[in-house]
Specification:
This protein is an alpha+beta fold. The chain has 2 domains: about 55 residues, no CATH class; about 120 residues, no CATH class. The protein is built from 5 helices and 10 strands; from the N terminus they run H-H-H-H-E-H-E-E-E-E-E-E-E-E-E. Strands 1, 2, 4, 5, 6, 7, 9 and 10 form an 8-stranded antiparallel beta sheet that branches. Strands 3-8 form a two-stranded antiparallel ribbon. Strand 9 and strand 10 form a beta hairpin. It is elongated, with a radius of gyration of 34 Å. The protein starts with a helix and ends with a strand.
């Protein structure tokens, strides 16, 4: 039964084309209509049936296509194993290490970000592949806890995450601009 339908479907598309061509007499009659002004005034106006296939062939509209490329990078939270390996060179003590913010950063390469962790208030901690840690302050109206599962950032031509330029988007939909970046350095006590 399905094979009969598959055979008949293309034929149904040809029915309007065959009906519009008809025999030679109808084609000549359509190409050269003969009527007088009196017939036009007395008879109601009826539109000729429109054949979509012939209308498509006769259209002279040129269409344009614009292709845009957009790359979005996802930065995921770092696993505990990776975090421990990044801090492997730090001497292990009973007291947790203290970090201090130093050296203001303007931009960080996106390819160099290994992971992210939420901090307090509006701060995120970025773990870089070169074993540096960067504290990122978001604009005041944003909360770091919105970024618990990482963030998305649209990749720019230079491939960097920069202050006062890029916006981070959380997976929940919050969009926050990067306000400041500072490097976190371990302090010896």
């Amino acid at each position: 039964m399905d094979s009969l339908l598959a055979f008949a479907a293309p034929l149904t598309l040809l029915v309007p084309v065959l009906a519009s061509t008809g025999d030679g007499q109808n084609r000549d009659a359509r190409s050269a209509p003969r009527c007088s002004m009196a017939d036009v005034a007395e008879s109601p106006v009826t539109a000729a049936p429109i054949n979509p296939l012939s209308a498509m062939r006769q259209s002279s509209i040129s269409r344009q296509v614009r292709i845009e490329q957009r790359v979005v990078v996802r930065i995921a939270p770092q696993s505990a194993v990776t975090r421990r390996s990044l801090l492997a060179d730090v001497p292990q003590r009973a007291v947790a290490p203290r970090f201090e913010e130093r050296d203001k950063e303007k931009c960080v390469p996106l390819d160099g970000i290994a992971g992210v962790q939420t901090g307090s208030g509006n701060r995120l901690v970025l773990y870089l592949r070169d074993r540096r840690m960067i504290s990122v302050s978001l604009e005041k109206s944003c909360r770091a806890r919105d970024f618990y599962s990482g963030f998305y950032v649209e990749k720019n031509k230079d491939g960097r995450l920069c202050v006062d330029r890029d916006k981070l988007q959380s997976r929940t939909g919050a969009r926050c601009e990067v306000d400041t970046m500072r490097q976190l350095v371990q302090v010896e006590s």
